[in-house]
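Supplementary Note 3. Input sequence used for the single-chain structure prediction.
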Amino acid sequence: MVTKQNVVVERVQTGVRMEKRVLKVLKAFADYRDLTLGDLLEGIVLHSFDGKCPFSQESLARIKELKKFYGLDLDSSASHRLTEAGAGRPAKKKASK
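The predicted structure, written as discrete structure tokens, is reproduced below.
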């Protein structure tokens, strides 16, 4: 019989920038699963690193509902095409006094 033991890790606080609606869906799903956002992201990343889908069919259905609620119309095909709002626009000139 194999027993699963807790793994002690060192966590660090980080600030990451993320598309606003993606973050809303992640926060809502974390709350739905009674997880912190950090725990949810760790789980997603660790599953992805192993080439596994981190979500059950039930979870994917809930995420689909949350995406609709928050107006998130992006999918994985957009991941390398996202640009920051205002990117590529000339900077506004400050008014001279």
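The longest helix spans residues 20-32. Residues 21 and 71 are 7 Å apart (CA to CA).
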